Amino acid sequence: MTKLSVNINKIATLRNSRGxxxxxxxxFAKDAQRFGAEGITIxxxxxxxxxxxxxxxxxxxxxxxxxxxxxxxxxxxxxxxxEVKPTQVTLVPDAVDAITSNAGWDTIKHKDFLIDVxxxxxxxxxxTSIFVDPVLAQIEGAKLTGxxxxxxxxxxxxxxxxxxxxxxxxxxFESARLANELDxxxxxxxxxxxxxxxxxxxxxxxxxxxxxxxxLITESLxxxxxxxxxxxxxxxK
Length: 237
Ligand SMILES: CC(=O)[C@@H](O)[C@H](O)COP(=O)(O)O
Ligand SMILES: NCC(=O)COP(=O)(O)O
Fold this sequence. Notes:
Helix 5 crosses helix 6 and helix 6 packs parallel to helix 8. This protein is globular. The longest helix is centred in the C-terminal third of the chain and has 22 residues. The protein has one domain: TIM Barrel (Alpha-Beta Barrel), CATH 3.20.20.70. By secondary structure, the chain is an alpha/beta fold. Helices cover 46% and strands 17% of the residues. 1-deoxy-D-xylulose-5-phosphate (DXP) binds next to loops. Ligand LD2JLWAY binds next to strand 8 and helix 10.
């Protein structure tokens, strides 16, 4: 059974674009859970361009499924996560100016740093996951950090799948097999969509959780727009 964690960054992007509180981020998270989401993911970035640190606090009492906070463990992020105490923290090595996450950790180079950070979160009862590329040496390195889980960075898979190259699943399958041998839990995310999720889920053994945001919100717009236009037309009759 693979859990679906809905990433609500894009809801905050939309809200921030008008400066008010529509759509309401907490309300959206509550509805997403009511509609079956098994987790809520946020990725507060240091510039707070979408999710704000205050959103992370406001969501805490309302997320009764799994609460996953992603980000680069700079001091302000660590303080926030230790205050909010979500179910899981996913560590992502993204630069402040990155448009979106664009690489996994070098778990070998940053081993000592990751060991310290992961230990601190685990001491506070927060499950840890680290964002990694599907590279066997990086999976072995992840194991040495003490993390509970890895999150496989799926951008390359998603891109290749859209071009018809299903072989792109191979490094993910090999990485998952090794992670299973090493007793590391497996999450995955980035650019997963209705188009590519089924094949990925079917090919990856023991996939515990996927976090999906960009495509899920885009698909929701397309799948909902006909209905909403009809509702407006009815009001205008
Ligand atoms: C960690 C990851 O893969 C990201 O997809 C991320 O959480 C999305 O962040 P943005 O919404 O800022 O692109
Ligand atoms: N960890 C990945 C995530 O939360 C969502 O990524 P995306 O679907 O917005 O690319």
